[in-house]
From TrEMBL:
Bilayer-spanning residue ranges: 12-28, 40-62, 83-107, 138-157, 164-183
Keyword line: Cell membrane, Lipid biosynthesis, Lipid metabolism, Membrane, Phospholipid biosynthesis, Phospholipid metabolism, Transferase, Transmembrane, Transmembrane helix
Protein name: CDP-diacylglycerol--glycerol-3-phosphate 3-phosphatidyltransferase
Lineage of source species: Bacteria, Bacillati, Bacillota, Bacilli, Bacillales
Pfam families: CDP-OH_P_transf (PF01066)
GO biological process terms held by the UniProt record: phosphatidylglycerol biosynthetic process
This enzyme's EC code(s): 2.7.8.5
Example of a GO cellular component annotation carried by this entry: plasma membrane
Superkingdom as given in the UniProt entry: Bacteria
UniProt keyword Zinc present: no
PANTHER family: CDP-DIACYLGLYCEROL--GLYCEROL-3-PHOSPHATE 3-PHOSPHATIDYLTRANSFERASE 1, CHLOROPLASTIC, CDP-DIACYLGLYCEROL--GLYCEROL-3-PHOSPHATE 3-PHOSPHATIDYLTRANSFERASE-RELATED
Catalytic activity: a CDP-1,2-diacyl-sn-glycerol + sn-glycerol 3-phosphate = a 1,2-diacyl-sn-glycero-3-phospho-(1'-sn-glycero-3'-phosphate) + CMP + H(+)
Membrane topology classification: Multi-pass membrane protein
Family from the record: Belongs to the CDP-alcohol phosphatidyltransferase class-I family.
Amino acid sequence: MNIPNQITISRILLIPIFMAFMLIDFGWGEVSLLGTTLPVAHLIGALIFIFASATDWVDGYYARKYNLVTTFGKFLDPLADKLLVSAALIILVELGFAPAWVVIVIISREFAVTGLRLVLAGEGEVVAAGNLGKIKTVTQLIAIISLLLYNMVFAIIDIPFGEIMLYIALLFTVWSGWDYFYANRKGLMTSK
């Protein structure tokens, strides 16, 4: 197994560790940083999420630079991303930081686009991530990180930045999902 795929697997293995820090009360107290107070365990969990999210860029860069792109990696990398983001979004609902309906729409779009990609892959077509999909990913990550960090920095000026970014992410999630289906409608209609 090559290094980019090992990095991707490490991202998946970080998910339960991230979840443990976010969901288990370790009784480590709280920390005040940049206008907000949050449990120490949540700060550690947020840092784990940030690190795990960064590995997505690292494995992709490394795979392309050293020509280590594999079929296994093409399958596993987006799966790892979806698992990490889904886990974070569900945790945000559990903590009361995100509305369940927003999370359901976001996760449903991810399943739908993954299904579309699988159908088209069966027909020999590869659906690459478009610019809207990349913007969707960035806005989702900014929203999740902001909410995991209790709106750090923006809490000083009383702006619900994480919540605003979540709705912006929702907009790009729906828009990019519609764009994927519209752009690939012919391939979808002719699939057997």
